[in-house]
UniProtKB/TrEMBL annotation:
The keyword Ligase applies. Gene3D superfamilies: 3.30.300.30, N-terminal domain of ligase-like. This is Acyl-CoA synthetase (AMP-forming)/AMP-acid ligase II. CDD domains: AFD_class_I. The keyword Metal-binding does not apply. It comes from Croceifilum oryzae. It comes from the Bacteria. It holds the Pfam family AMP-binding. The chain crosses the membrane at residues 67-84. InterPro entries: AMP-bd_C_sf (IPR045851), AMP-dep_synth/lig_dom (IPR000873), ANL_N_sf (IPR042099). Keywords: Ligase, Membrane, Transmembrane, Transmembrane helix. Residues 12-356 form the AMP-dependent synthetase/ligase domain.
Amino acid sequence: MKSRRDILDHIIEAHGNRPFLKTSREIITFPQFRERIMDLSHLMCDRSSSTDTGHLAVIMCRRPKNFVLAYFAAIYAGLVPVPISELCKEREITASIHGAVYLLSDCPQSENIRNLRSDELSNELICYHLQPEKPLSAGVETAVLLSTSGSVGFPKRVMLSFDNIFANVEGLQQALQLSSDDSTLAILPFHYSFAHTTQLWAQFILGAPLILTDGPLIPKQVMSLCTNHQPVSVCVVAQSIKVLSTVTQWASNFDLSSIQRLIVAGGRTSQDLMESAIQLFPNAKILQGYGLTEAGPRVSMEIEQDAVRIMDGIRSSGKPLPNVKVKIVDSEYKETDTLQEGMITVCGPNVMKGYFMNDISTKKVFHDGWLLTGDIGFVDPCGYLYIRGRSRNMLVHKGFKVFPEEIESFVLEDPRIQRCRAYEEKGCYILEVQSTEITDPQVILERMKNELSYWKIPDQLRFTEIELTHNGKTKRNTNKKVTFL
């Protein structure tokens, strides 16, 4: 088996002197990129040679360029990167770094991690030495750990191997006919599984330019980067379209004509937002797809040659990628007929190795080698996939995933609260609380704002009595709106 360093070196050498990273300030070629990650890996590990340990290095960066450098430097040093949001609070960071040997960050929040030795890797990147009593290892075959559940408490992490990532990129390349000329503008955080594989790894493997913003999404900067670097594609979620749409009146001052593909991920996107996106990028075709972190993440994708297909009011998520199989099954795991709804199951080289240190959860999501997505959908006679909804509890709020179980666990730490329930109803994220002592919602909301990321704060907080099921668990809101991919 090749070492992590050998894998990166092989890819980089194949691309010659092509440009890899483009920002508003500089262009970094593949050879220059290798020099930088090599230097960072040596500084980080204080050694001139790398041994694959599979130990964990948490990556938390607000600047995309720093993230990319830290991420690949960790791999080059024989470590497994664990990307987390740059907006995490101290409590969430503490949970995420459990068992890791390093925290690589350029965020002010990470300075709140006390009693840690740290080294300055660059003008912005800091390496925190975590020195756990028992360092955790994800194994030499694991390329990355991506979180797929809340980060309060020990998060559930998906183990993706290099083979998983390469297979998913190969499927995307075949479906979308990607080449080294297909530059892309990255505006989504790379801790998103979608941006992580579809953009970061795809561009690296294909030898295509990856255009980066300087930090958080700033519409004028996005338009300026489009004008100066002429990307062919951009990946978005509904929230980023909303932000970009606030400056539609300035779009005529920039050249946005190079964008040919607008790839939409995350929650279901309204027709109004679709129209706003087309106004901004008039030459782009909107492509929707379906995926989940456990599948690498891409499962299916519309392609540019396809006409938009709508059945029963649902827009198709395209056909499965060429190297991915999809099967719709009933409650007994028997394959359903065409157009009959059931649970979506997935099989292919893109599917994860499993959940890190969580064999029980891993076994629950596999049946006869097929990944049980928990999502409901159907396939039409031509093989196009349609997503009806989720059978899980997860909801999407402000463009981010929110896991009710995480929120409820956090809220219930207050002994004055007896029960609580988080859910989505008509697009509104609601938190219901049952308490005999607290009557002011600000008491709960202020604690949440102080200790949780902003997207985990509910739109509404209600005091009410909450029913329990027959086995003593919180009874979920049966009228909640199902969140679509």
